[in-house]
Amino acid sequence: MSGRIGIAQRLYKGQVSFNFVGRRRTWYVISAIILLVSVGALVFRGLNLGIEFRGGADFAIPNATCSIEQARSVAESKTGSQAIVTSAVNGTIRVQTESLTPDESSVLAGELANTCGVPKGEIKVQVVGPTWGSEISKKALQALVVFLLLVSIFLSIYFEWRMAIAALVALAHDLVITIGIYALTGLEVTPATVIGLLTILGFSLYDTVVVFDKVKENTRNIAGQSVMTYSEAANLALNQTLVRSINTSIVALLPVLAIIIIGAGLLGAGTLLDLAVALAVGMAAGTYSSIFIATPFLAQLKEHQPEMRSLSTRVKARRSQASKSRTGEAEGENVVGTGEVTTLIDGAPRQQPKRVSRSRRSKS
Amino acid sequence: MAPPVTSRPARGLFALLIVLVGLLAWAFWPGTPNTVRLGLDLQGGTQVILVPKPVTAGAEITDEQLQQTVAIIRQRVDGLGVAEAEVTTQGTGNGAAIIVSVPGAEQDRLVDLVKRTALLDFRPVDTLLNPQPFDINATPNPEPSASASASGSASGSASPSATPSPTTTFVPGTSLVQSPDNSAAYQGEVLALDCTNPEAYTGGIPDDPALWLGTCERTGEVKYNLEPAFIKGSNVTGATAGLPQNGVGSWVVSLEFDSEGAKALAAASTKLSALPDCGSGVSPCNAFAIVLDGVVVSAPRFNEPILGGQAQIEGNFTAQEANDLANVLKYGALPVTLEPVDITSVSPTVGNDQLRAGIIAGLLGLVLVMIYLMIYYRALGIVAVISLIMAGAVAYLMIVVFSKTIGLTLTLAGVAGAIVAIGITADSFIVYFERIRDEIREGRSLRQACESGWVRARRTLLAADFVSLLAAAVLYLLSVGSVRGFAFVLGLTTIVDILVAFWFTHPLVVLLGRTGWMQKGSRWTGLDADRVSGHALTGEVVSKSRRRQNTDQETVEVPSP
Questions:
Q1: Architecture (CATH level 2) of domain B45-113
Q2: pLDDT tens, B268-279?
């Protein structure tokens, strides 16, 4: 136990540092591959849209005594078109057909009730007109655009526009991956899925805001010194909030996991399950992107700023000077969160030169 | 960043106490409902989403038309006699949607009820009959529920009678009995009509005003044989409910007609008022029936000729009944056509299952999160767990209060939102606790760390929660259907999160941080030296300059794993 906590402590001090920012190319490549797969799946496989989006009728028959084949033949003979029939673990049979008029759906519900030995009132029926789905999608899209606009304004004011862009890039990343997973697995996209996606918006941004807040704090007076580059300071912030990020992800995923277990076990497919699957994927992606995408991307944007560029030059000059003056012990000397640390330095005996104390640092 | 050295924990706790007591009183005030209203997906029932389309293509739907439509639908749905039926609108103009939710109602009947176009006409009453199908020995003839005076007293029987719950399938249109003349065959059909059957008095398709009509009072209490219409609904130019001008008596409905209607009214009232009162075996008699969608809404009696084109219907109306009748007269026909775009019906069994599963999932998620927090944060974990319970309690009370004030209904999507909120709320505590640890690592004493850590965590929390709140607000305002319920709960829990973090968790941590036990840094505190940093938590002795340096010092003190 104390080992893990020790790591938290050393992460904070920068004695243990994962080089998230410095190795951004690696993360970009990984994300690019995942994004490509997602987009590819979306283009070539497409989404399995629920009847709420394409229109149709859906009958859920609990405790059905009929076989899937019987239900299908009833549905297809009544509607004269193909029907999708599935059964869930809890004995519910689901029949989906093309959109029906209310009268037609009533008749079919009655037939299914007879065939499957359940009272007609027990059958859960949903009939959706084909135009309604596009209406919902349009509204959701509208909400999305308005939200993104507002949140960009907020982030630009609270942080700065570069952080807003980085946060939105991370957000887009999460959404594309989540949608890609749906395309890839063929899971049905329902309004609950859309709710899940919209929650991911909030969650992904929330996560990024917490990390960026620390970055902002660490880089407040960064231009006035020459010990650390922006990237290094950002990386330190990431490492300092790493424990929190992991804890948060676990704590956020636990209830979602509970929904998946209960949803799959007790209910079969349904609102809860649809929502939870989207959330689980999106939250995982959100945590990943706030660490591996948002902050490295932000650092990249910032490094293009003239002040930050000159800072980098200063830091470099200073380091080469330091290594000249103290040959032999330069390697382990790297300052807190340096961009050069590529692996977990753990427990190795630190060559312990006297580090420049803070008061002296800021004078230089 | 100068942290305030002391905060006043008692103040925050007291503020939360006031909020809690206030919510408790509001939520459980005796005599008011104190349960959460459940959505149809959790209690069973039928929901129909209708999109109104203007009658003439290309026209814009006005707010007034929308309100009229909702009023008419509400009236029709209320006619079902189901408590808690709900008609709401979302959006405006041509993008508007009307959502009708009726617990327990059957799908077919509801759809038919709400989307049909209504037709209003006024017909002279030929005969008043028992509601039962004809059986001459069964019951005595009914007294007319419709009585009227010249400015008319009316059938006040607007209160829905207790009817057996409709179990038969309703096939619209079968209950209309019409004929070009008052033939014997037609009269036989009228006699055979069973007005105790809900199918017969719900109203199906519009009747033909030019034909005789045998139909029922819409409560199913009386059966009528009606002559062809003398005034059509389109002749009515205005109808208002109000108290009589002399201030005596109950509510009345005033009617105005156009010139054609006034002429027809004058002729009909002159002829009818000379006839005897309606009653057993009296045919024809002096009442006229207001027929909406083939069923009789009201049947006032003419006491004298009405020549001015203005009439007043009196009866023992309540304000509600009078307004309803006035609305029927004014907007008998829907001002728009309605297209049902989404029909969902859920049986009560399935609804209960979903509710149960939601509750179980929520509790399981809560317990898992609590266990994790306890293991990782020890004593602070207990604070977090208590805070979570507190947040849950406040959120529940708020939902109850919103249920009764603005009619919030909790749907499955809302339950999911609440479950997701567990994680987001717990995250606030994590952010705070990690900040405290950071401050201790910077060399502050526990007391100082609880304060200065809060100052920093607070900023982060507010920024992050603001983003959540923004998402919830935008979703709530711009989306339709279940997304809205979810957004509402998400926004609500975000506010609760802020409330609890500021007024409960922080004060509690500060109080805890003042105890000697926490400062000693036992390993059960969650902040012990071993786990967090090397220096003593009672660090009052740590001088400022030492604090600056202990960054380096500690690296020596921390034991390697």
A1: 2-Layer Sandwich (3.30)
A2: 888 888 888 777
